[in-house]
Design goal:
Distance between the termini: 45 Å
Strand order of the largest sheet: 1-27-28-29-30
Strand content: 35-45%
Number of helices: 1
Shape: globular
Length: about 425
């Protein structure tokens, strides 16, 4: 089935630089460093048989696959309500503080005719300072006041960059870099663009790449002393200079569906990329030449851990995540691509306090010791159901809580030690 291509950007990354938001929060997709690794400690190392305590459930966020960002004692997510896209802010007790419209949803599009159970929001809101930024499925980029939800500015990417609407909508969770909001319109007037985060004005746009969007989110990294924005289009891994938008390097990589949902991982000058639909995974080594240009070499390529959309994370030189056509949860050695273990299943994950939190797309949440020796499950429980569809939103661990979204419901669990 082709429905899976509509997904939100599901990605994992390890940029070298630290996110501009508050380090103690979870201000954007996959956290302050966009590596999907929480600094939390003092968490339960084993759960009761029926799982940790459910603190609250909110059923008023709309339908979708966006996960949560957390900052300023607020929880932010997005969802579809009556074919409209809304950004919602909750307090830490799960009560709605505000809900702001961000245009029509993908389901309202004339191109959407069949995948109603898979409609809904994709991208996760990004918080920076007094603003929260969100890109809707139909390309409406908006800045909202963090306290009230009042719109500060908006930009239609389709119009501004002469872009065609992606077949399954934009899925990107936008990146903040300095004074810029980084996004990928994939239009004639810019594949990647930097937008002034205060005014919504375009600062730069790169027109060197003509690919379709890859459905992942960009990350910031430093390679050979050069800061760069790294992302995947439908057909290649790309690197851009962040201040002017110049293309630094590219490497062909994609799949038969032109759909690469998972963010790149950057570590010690190496770039890991992965995708489903036969894409497999690859490790690249960009090298800066004496004239300042980059040459990119392939370290290894594998059919294993061909991540579909649940994300991959890097811990102590080991890659953890689920494959698509290669089937199962995997641990691979980063430097060699060698398989260290494999077990049945497929889903999304996050990490905190020596544990992997693995959410199977059928709704089982498992607590796994993060070891390259074996899949070492210590606890699991069955999630409640929200609405229709699979469990595709990525889990988040922050401030002693585990947040899991399914369809139009958000669940918050207490995972602190007593």
């Amino acid at each position: 089935m082709r429905y899976v291509r509509l997904l939100l950007v599901c990605i994992v990354s390890v940029p070298v630089s630290v996110w501009a938001g508050e380090e103690s929060g979870w201000p954007c997709f996959h956290g302050p460093r966009r590596d999907n690794i929480s600094a939390e400690t003092g968490l339960l190392q084993i759960w009761p048989d029926d799982g940790p305590k459910l603190l609250w459930t909110n059923s008023d966020i709309g339908y979708g696959y966006s996960t949560v960002s957390i900052a300023a004692d607020r929880i932010f997510t997005a969802g579809m309500i009556e074919k409209q896209t809304f950004v919602t802010a909750l307090d830490l007790a799960g009560r709605k503080l505000w809900q702001s419209l961000n245009g029509r949803s993908w389901q309202a599009s004339e191109r959407q005719t069949w995948a109603v159970p898979y409609a809904g929001s994709r991208g996760t809101p990004t918080v920076d300072g007094e603003s929260v930024y969100h890109l809707s499925e139909l390309g409406r980029l908006a800045a909202l006041d963090i306290e009230t939800g009042k719109e500060q500015w908006r930009l239609d990417l389709l119009e501004a960059f002469e872009a065609e609407r992606p077949e399954y909508g934009y899925s990107e969770s936008v990146l903040i870099h300095g004074d810029s909001v980084i996004c990928c319109p994939a239009g004639a007037r810019g594949y990647m663009a930097a937008i002034d985060k205060k005014t919504g004005k375009t600062l730069w746009a790169n027109t060197e790449i003509k690919d379709a969007v890859g459905n992942c989110s960009a990350v910031i990294a430093n390679i050979d002393g050069i800061e760069q924005i790294i992302t995947l289009s439908a057909n290649r891994v790309l690197s851009f200079e962040p201040n002017q938008g110049r293309l630094l390097w590219q490497f062909e990589f994609g799949n038969q569906r032109e759909n690469s949902c998972t963010d790149a991982i950057v570590s010690d000058g190496l770039v890991y990329a992965t995708s489903g639909y036969g894409g497999g995974c690859i490790l690249l080594r960009p090298n800066r030449m004496p004239d300042g240009t980059f040459e990119v070499g392939q370290v290894w390529k594998s059919d294993l851990l061909d991540n579909h959309h649940g994300g991959v994370l890097l811990l102590d030189g080991h890659l953890y995540g689920a494959g698509h056509e290669s089937r199962g949860w995997f641990c691979l050695d980063l430097m060699t691509g060698g398989k260290l273990w494999q077990t049945p299943g497929k889903g999304s994950l996050t990490y905190a306090d020596s544990r992997l939190y693995c959410l199977d797309e059928r709704g089982t949440m498992s607590l796994i010791r993060s070891t390259p020796g074996k899949w070492d499950q210590v606890s699991s429980f069955k999630m409640p159901r929200g609405g229709k569809g699979l469990y595709w939103a990525h889990p988040v661990v922050h401030d002693g809580r585990l947040y899991v979204r399914h369809a139009e419901q958000l669940f918050a669990y207490d995972i602190r030690k007593n």
